[in-house]
Structure formats: structure tokens, C-alpha cells
Design goal:
- The chain has two domains: 167 residues, 3-Layer(aba) Sandwich (Rossmann fold), CATH 3.40.50.720; 180 residues, N-(1-d-carboxylethyl)-l-norvaline Dehydrogenase, domain 2 (Orthogonal Bundle).
- The chain is of the alpha/beta class.
- The strands form two sheets. Strands 2, 3, 5, 6, 7, 8 and 9 form a seven-stranded mixed β-sheet that branches. A two-stranded parallel sheet has the order 1-4.
- It has 14 helices and nine strands.
- The chain is 43% helix and 14% strand.
- Helix 4 packs across helix 5 and helix 7 packs across helix 10.
């Protein structure tokens, strides 16, 4: 459900291994897939995969044993309610979404216990019926603490492994989700600001330093939420990610791109240091410890940081992405929303982050 890049990539990998898959997506993709199959343009796989696709939830979900729930966070509750009438009693829902509280959102909407899943994949829908894969493609699943330890996760992991999708079962899934959140905080927004691929971005010392400080603050936020993370371990994971996803750009970059044709939804993406989640934290005022605040201590600091990012952006090749060929990438009006969001975060202090 939600056959964008994530849904199409993992759906395609499962389908080519023999699993019966039906994608539920938007009409242009569904029509293209019906005509020619789904083109998986990947690092290891480049082939057209025959796969069923529909725009109808009823047709796509009814009698499904497993639902890959891949919608954006802002649509979680509404999509879950639309899904509910067609779920069989024993259907397993896997929440393949960025963020830390999507399974809770699903449960609050329809009282279903979705399986939390940390997703590591760089993929993009580059044309109707075409998903381009540029990095990783693995999952971590686990039972949420305090919830029933059902379903059995071993068969689910085996299904993905059989499809050449590494899938690890974790007894600490909250820590895994927070680790992914920390990495999002370090890279997604900076990739959007700099218009750079991860591999090139981390070669810049100012950009890399800002990302490391974002990691430190977000780890502190996780600890304030009762999730124990080791900052050195998370930093190592972030470094490994850039080594394996050097060509990747963030989903935030794509959503604010002037040629992306998508609505700007900075608040909804799990990248602005978890702001979309932490503003709604039931445990304490998020204003007291919103991440990134120590990165932006004063107006002069903001100016220095923006100048550093802008200088780095100007160093990027104009044709670093074929869709931007011939287009200016100056940090001007289209980035005003980005800069305003950053300046908005700067007014908060962060005592819990030290």
C-alpha cells in the first residue's frame, strides 16, 4: 500500500522471488505497470518485472496475508482507516515508514498492531512504472515493547531474505527506529540544502561537522525519550551509510526540488530533526529540547552556517542530477521555506541536549 519508491522496490524484489504481490498506487504508475510491468533499475537488478497493480484498496488488500504500509507519515491515520475494512483478521501490517511513531498512529486509528520496520534503501520513482535503486535495500523488524509478540517474525524475515532483501530481527526495535531517525537528521535536510549526493556531501568539512552535531543532539533527544543510544555507534552507522549510498540524495531534496512536482512537506518528513514527531510528544514540551537548536546559537551563527552551505552548493556540478540539467541551483527564493524552518528552530533552547 503506497506504491511509491519504497513500496515498488520491495514489492518488485518479492515478486521476482515468486511471492504473489499486488501494488496499490496512483493511476499513472498503475497504468504503466499494467502495460509493461515494473522496471526495476537497480544496482544489482535491471529487469522488467511482471507484477499486479491497482488503484483500488479493496482489490489490492482484500485477502492479503501481509501489507507493506508505505504511505507518508502525514497520511498514516487516514490511510489506516481506509485500509481497515479490507483487512483479513490475521493480516500482518509492516510499517515501512520513516519516523518512530507510525505503528502507534496506526494502532490509534484502527487498533491494529503493525510491525515497526527500519528501512534502509535509496530508491526513486524516475518515471511512471520505473523505480531506480541507488543504494542498500535492507530492513530491520521487531516487536514494539509492551505489544503482543505476534506475528512470528521469522517467516517474514525468511520471505525477504529469499527475495535477496536482507532482513534482521531486532529485540530493540525502538533503538533501531531512533538510529534511522538520527541518520535522517544528519543527512536528509543537509542533502536538501546542498543539493548534493551523500558521498560528495560528507567530503565537505562544514557540512560534515553540522551533520555530526545534529547526530549528537538527536541522540540526546532519544535518551530523553528513554531510548538508550550510543553516539559513537550511531556515528559509525551514519558513516557506513554514506559509504554504501554514495549516489543517494534525500527524499527531502526531491520533495523541495523545483522540478519534483511534489508539494513541499518539510514538516511531514522525518528529517527536520524529528520535528514532526517531537512537536507532538506526549511526554514533555518539545520546545525545551528540539534538536538542531545548538547548531544555530545566534543570528550570526545562522548566517555563517547558511553561508557555508551555500558555498558548498555553489561547488556542486550543475548537472549532478539529469533532471536539473540547465537549471540554476542558487540558494534564493525556493529555499526561503527551508531557511525559515531552520530559523524557526533556532529560537528554541535545548537544556536536555546539554
Amino acid at each position: 500500500m503506497g506504491a511509491g519508491a519504497v513500496g515498488c522496490y520491495f514489492g518488485a524484489m518479492l515478486a521476482r522471488s515468486g511471492v504473489r504481490v499486488k501494488l496499490v498506487g496512483r493511476a499513472p504508475h498503475v497504468e504503466a505497470i499494467a502495460r509493461n510491468g515494473l522496471l526495476l533499475d537497480g544496482l544489482r537488478v535491471h529487469e522488467r518485472i511482471p507484477i499486479a497493480a491497482t488503484t483500488s484498496l479493496a482489490e489490492g488488500v482484500r485477502d492479503a496475508g501481509v501489507v507493506l504500509f508505505c504511505v507518508k507519515t502525514v497520511s498514516t491515520e487516514s490511510a489506516a482507516r481506509e485500509l481497515q475494512p479490507f483487512l483479513a483478521p490475521n493480516t500482518t501490517i509492516l510499517s515501512l515508514q520513516n519516523g518512530i511513531d507510525n505503528p502507534d498512529r496506526i494502532h490509534s486509528a484502527i487498533q491494529a498492531y503493525a510491525v515497526p520496520t527500519a528501512v534502509y534503501v535509496a530508491a526513486e520513482m524516475t518515471a511512471p512504472g520505473r523505480v531506480t535503486h541507488t543504494g542498500r535495500g535492507d530492513l530491520i523488524i521487531g516487536h514494539r515493547a509492551g505489544w503482543p509478540r505476534q506475528p512470528d517474525l521469522e517467516p517474514l524475515a525468511a520471505m525477504f531474505e529469499q527475495a535477496e532483501v536482507p532482513c534482521r530481527i531486532s529485540d530493540e526495535i525502538a533503538a533501531e527506529l531512533w538510529t534511522k531517525m538520527v541518520i535522517n537528521c544528519a543527512y536528509n535536510a543537509l542533502s536538501a540544502l546542498t543539493r548534493a549526493q551523500y558521498g560528495r556531501m560528507v567530503q565537505s568539512e562544514p557540512v560534515r561537522d553540522l551533520g555530526m552535531r545534529a547526530i549528537a543532539e538527536t541522540v540526546a533527544v532519544a535518551r530523553a525519550e528513554g531510548v538508550s543510544l550510543s553516539e559513537p555507534v550511531v556515528v559509525e552507522a551514519a558513516v557506513r551509510l554514506t559509504e554504501k549510498m554514495t549516489r543517494a540524495t534525500s527524499s527531502t531534496w526531491r520533495r523541495i526540488s523545483p522540478v519534483a512536482g511534489q508539494p513541499k512537506s518539510i514538516r511531514s518528513t522525518a528529517t527536520w530533526s524529528g520535528a514532526a514527531l517531537l512537536w507532538e510528544s506526549p511526554h514533555r514540551s518539545a520546545k525545551s529540547w528540539l534538536p538542531w537548536s545548538s547548531c544555530w546559537r545566534s543570528p550570526s551563527s545562522i548566517g555563517d552556517q547558511v553561508a557555508s552551505l551555500n558555498n558548498f552548493r555553489r561547488s556542486q556540478p550543475r548537472k549532478s542530477d539529469e533532471r536539473l540539467a540547465g537549471q540554476s541551483v542558487s540558494l534564493r527564493s525556493q529555499d526561503r521555506e527551508v531557511k525559515d524552518a531552520i530559523r524557526g528552530l533556532a529560537v528554541y533552547s535545548a537544556p536536555a541536549c546539554g
